[in-house]
Design brief:
- Helices cover 25% and strands 34% of the residues.
- A hairpin with a 2-residue loop joins strand 1 and strand 2.
- Helix 2 packs across helix 3.
- The longest helix has 19 residues.
- It is flat and about 75 Å long.
Amino acid sequence: MITAAGVTGDVREIGLFATRIDTVDNLSVVVGNNKILSDNIVNYTTNPFRRVDLKAQLAHGVDPHEAAGRLMEKVKQIPNVIDAPGPSVEILEFNLSGAVLAVRPFCHNNNYWQVFFDTNKAIQEVCATAGYPAPWTNQVIHHKPLTG
């Protein structure tokens, strides 16, 4: 599976002038080799495993360290998440809604989408079970009346 010339999918045929790629939504795309060779090629299946990169937005008032601990325990239980390298759940940033956690399990290439969707489900379940409020943008505006 590659991304080349803006197309992501499985390479099915490499010809003299064009390459046929079957996309993940089952479209067959013929890409000119001149476009492929003049751009970067990302190969998703060369290495035996890859990392799933997701974010979990927390609301103000939610302890990000406690949330990260809960998420780590849940992510470790997801089928096909590998132990080495192990998953990580870390504070990625802070924004107007609160802390954002980076949730990053590793899995074998064949299990990527299953782990991706199960990790999203785990984020939702942990937040719901813990009773975390939904994040929302919080701004305080101070108004100072004009005096004449």
